[in-house]
């Protein structure tokens, strides 16, 4: 077994490593990499290209990218950890060298390699993880708090490079996102968890139905509180149709209870309808994903696909017809609307373009209201801000510019050509997009 050892300066190598393993200088030739004895900062000021690709055992240190960690050297445990990494190492070396080099650079290919080498990525319930669940690849692609386990894997899934199966489902806290929450039946009237059940008794003879305790018991027999007759045979003269819920806090009696959550992380109380069910997925690389990994070619930066995960997109023609109706309505009711245009094709590098689309999508999702309409056509986003007159529309453009300016350089933001104009001006033909459309129509 060949080990590549990345040791902190002046940390002695356990002699067992020298004795029992073949130590190699080049991580590309190793079965498993070992990070030896140094605090995180000393070992990982930058991420080496092989990190996350070949299996890593951290020895006497912690390293976020490690597959396994040993606090102290123990020959038996160490062998076990290395053996566990061998299969992954072999899978990695199956990938052609040129494609491995690409996987070291491209975050999507790197993630595919990571999942493929480990034969899938399973959601793991983990009390130590913030939301209570973690995926191994989050070491590579930190989750942005979405329980899909990272934006990158969602992109891979949407494009068919990974498949997902439901591992479990949960109701995250609407306040902090944690899945660690009590979910329990509560009183539908006052929300108290202090509820109990009462058995109902139905007396056929007189039609009375009420809680069991209102029927006096005479020996083994009930007596009806309404007609004072004795109930003889269940199914013959009386029945027990079920139970009702009784709230000890507000005294309400009801057939239905509600479900409410209490977050164990932040103590927030929430009704279940504030926390839609989220699925926790396991991921596996699909044949299409393997093709991409082995060829080093991945087509994943399509802005339309990325944007549509954040905002619902319509065709430009649809937006125009909504715009015309809005203009007519605005003339009658005296309100104005604005149109925002953004060029998301400004970046030439596909990875950067994908990232740009993702950021724009995130910002738009925060900015837009339900009455707004967004179209995507030829790398250009057109956003119809209904009812946003000349005093509000430019604000939206400014906010978008500022938000993107925090992440991208001025040159990039400039090139995105973010513009806001009144709906009228837009409909009067101030629409660079439509020259394309016109050409199509003539053809
Ligand atoms: Zn009765
Ligand atoms: Zn109640
Ligand atoms: Zn919470």
Describe this protein's structure.
By secondary structure, this protein is α+β, with helices and mostly antiparallel strands. The chain folds into 4 domains: 2-94; 110-171 and 279-295, no CATH class; 197-256; 303-442, Alpha-Beta Plaits, CATH 3.30.70.270. It is built from 14 helices and 23 strands. It has helices spanning 15-20, 40-43, 75-94, 97-105, 107-117, 151-158, 287-295, 303-307, 316-333, 350-367, 393-405, 410-415, 423-427, 434-442; strands at 2-7, 22-23, 32-36, 56-59, 68-70, 124-125, 133-134, 162-170, 181-186, 195-203, 209-211, 216-218, 221-223, 238-247, 253-254, 258-263, 269-271, 278-285, 313-314, 338-343, 373-377, 380-385, 419-422. Strands 2-1-3-4-5 form a 5-stranded parallel beta sheet. A 5-stranded mixed beta sheet has the order 19-21-22-20-23, with helices on both faces. Strands 11-10-14-15 form a 4-stranded antiparallel beta sheet, with no helix packed on it. A hairpin with a 7-residue loop joins strand 6 (124-125) and strand 7. Helix 4 (97-105) crosses helix 5 (107-117) and helix 10 packs across helix 11. The chain is flat, with a radius of gyration of 31 Å. The protein starts with a strand and ends with a helix. The model is unreliable at 41-45, 143-148 and 434-443 (pLDDT under 50). The chain binds zinc ion (3 copies).
């Amino acid at each position: 077994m060949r080990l590549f050892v990345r040791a902190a300066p002046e940390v002695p190598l356990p002699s067992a490593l020298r004795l029992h393993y073949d130590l190699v200088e080049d991580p590309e030739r190793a079965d498993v990499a070992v990070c030896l004895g140094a605090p995180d900062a000393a070992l990982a000021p930058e991420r080496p290209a092989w990190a996350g690709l070949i299996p890593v055992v951290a020895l006497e240190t912690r390293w976020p990218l490690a597959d396994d960690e040993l606090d102290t050297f123990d020959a038996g445990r160490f062998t076990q950890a290395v053996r566990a990494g061998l299969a992954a190492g072999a899978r990695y070396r199956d990938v052609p060298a040129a494609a491995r080099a690409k996987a070291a650079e491209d975050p999507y290919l790197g993630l595919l390699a990571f999942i493929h080498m480990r034969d899938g990525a399973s959601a793991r319930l983990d009390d130590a993880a913030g939301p209570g669940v973690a995926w191994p690849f989050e070491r590579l692609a930190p989750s942005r708090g979405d329980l899909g386990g990272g934006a990158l894997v969602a992109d891979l899934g949407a494009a068919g490079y990974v498949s997902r199966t439901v591992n479990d489902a949960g109701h995250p806290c609407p306040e902090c996102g944690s899945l660690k929450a009590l979910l329990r039946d509560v009183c539908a009237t006052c929300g108290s968890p202090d509820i109990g059940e009462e058995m109902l008794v139905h007396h056929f003879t007189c039609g009375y139905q009420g809680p069991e305790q209102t029927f006096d018991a005479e020996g083994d027999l009930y007596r009806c509180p309404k007609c004072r007759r004795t109930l003889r045979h269940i199914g013959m003269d009386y029945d027990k149709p079920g139970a009702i819920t009784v709230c000890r806090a507000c005294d309400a009696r009801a057939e239905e209870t509600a479900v409410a959550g209490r977050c164990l992380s932040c103590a927030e109380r929430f009704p279940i309808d504030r926390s839609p069910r989220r699925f926790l997925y396991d991921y596996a690389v699909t044949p299409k994903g393997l093709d991409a990994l082995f060829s080093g070619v991945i087509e994943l930066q399509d802005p339309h696909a990325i944007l549509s995960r954040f905002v619902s997109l319509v065709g430009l023609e649809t937006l125009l017809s909504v715009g015309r109706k809005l203009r007519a309505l605005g003339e009658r009711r005296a309100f104005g609307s604005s149109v925002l245009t953004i060029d998301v094709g400004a970046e030439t590098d596909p990875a950067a373009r994908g990232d740009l689309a993702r950021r724009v999508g995130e910002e738009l999702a925060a900015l837009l209201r339900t009455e707004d309409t967004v179209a995507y056509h030829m790398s250009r986003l057109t956003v119809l801000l209904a009812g946003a007159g000349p005093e509000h529309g430019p604000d939206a453009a400014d906010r978008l510019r500022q938000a993107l300016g925090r992440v991208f350089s001025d040159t990039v933001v400039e090139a995105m050509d973010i513009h806001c104009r009144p709906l009228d001006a837009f409909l009067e033909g101030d629409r660079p997009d439509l020259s394309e459309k016109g050409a199509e129509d003539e053809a």
